[in-house]
Amino acid sequence: MDFHSIMGRVTTIMTGKRNDDVIADRLNYRYSVAILVGFAILNMNRLYTDQIKCWVPAFFTPNYDEYVRSVCFVQNTYYVHHTEKTPRSYDIKKQNELLYYQWIPFVLLVKAFIFYIPRLSWNTFGLKSGIQIGDLIESSFDYKQPTTDSSHRQMCLDFVVDSIDQYCLDRRHKNDERSHINIFQRSFMTICCLTGKYLGNYFVILYMTTKLMYIGVSIFQIYLLSIMLGSNFAFYGIQVVDRFFRGIHWDTESRLFPKTTLCDFTIREFGHPKLSHEYTVPCVLPLNLFNQQMFTFLYFWYVLVISLNICDFFLWLQAFTLRNRIDFIRKRLHSKKYPLINDINNEMKFQTFTIDYLESDGFFILSLIKENSSDYVMTEVIHRLYIERFLPKYLRERKTSTIYDDIDIKRKRSHLCSLIC
């Protein structure tokens, strides 16, 4: 049992859902989206209940106080360290301006949607394949359940075997139907998975493209935060770890998440349009204490997601190699559960079953069944596909080929005899 299978079972127990992917994918479109939406809801609630608080001159009336809070909340404040003098230059104030705290809930929702885009792509283009992997995994999951009725379990297994067999036997998938395709057409059809639907690697190309999208999206999340916060957020976590190991407490004077800022505003006198008073008041952003902790968590979550995405991408690349696919199928067919299979020593049959019958897509579907149900179910499916579907067709084609070869030999002999005689 490998890492994917273990995590797939844990996720199935936690969610009770049938998945057509692996745990690394669900970290992106399910858990990351849930975390971001949850933070957006919390931040929205705190944003309008615990707004900015500003210190105003004593002669300000309560109405003025409310006005200052609203103005400083709507417009951007700027950060100046408490040991520095208040700058007079507008450019310096603009450089230290905070642009994000009013928009955090909306930005988090946008980030959640971006995380879900690869999943939308996988679902949309997967429907064009002609087979529903989710239905196969759900049937495999039902077959694994010991409480399920035996007739229903058998019906589920038959459905999985029939569906994979029909998909693999599609005449448009076969090599003889693709013999006219040159190397340039094949390369283009492989890159453009929509036109290469019948090359036998449609799901593989689509899935690996989705994997690359997950990697790109997770890296883009950190870049998006750097733009929003106005600083290089990529090294923020390193600074946090460094302060932790040096025993330095939480940075309350953080440039990214300052707790105290300055706000400039103007009050115009009624009846005197040319007469106005400019004020600079210090303000407190209580929400930034929560934001600092939230974005620190998100930073390390993104690092985890990016790392798992990259590792999982290369694990799948290794799994799709021809040698690994053949060894994977041979190991299941030579399992102790089916001792008769051990008498089959023809390596050509294994290679033909893996390369020409299953192809890359068939192997990919079986791998997803293994990781979302169990290795036992996948071994049952492989055995039935090999014994009941592939071998009869393989032996029939070999017999037909032998008959035609004998006929050709007889014709050649007859023709040679006529020439001699």
UniProtKB/TrEMBL annotation:
Its biological purpose is as follows: Structural component of the gap junctions.
Q: Pfam families attached here? A: Innexin (PF00876)
Q: How does it sit in the membrane?
A: Multi-pass membrane protein
Which residue ranges run through the membrane? 29-48, 98-117, 183-200, 212-236, 299-322
Q: Can you say what this protein is called?
A: Innexin
Record organism = Adineta steineri
Q: Name one GO cellular component term.
A: plasma membrane
Question: Example GO biological process term?
Answer: monoatomic ion transmembrane transport
Write out the similarity annotation: Belongs to the pannexin family.
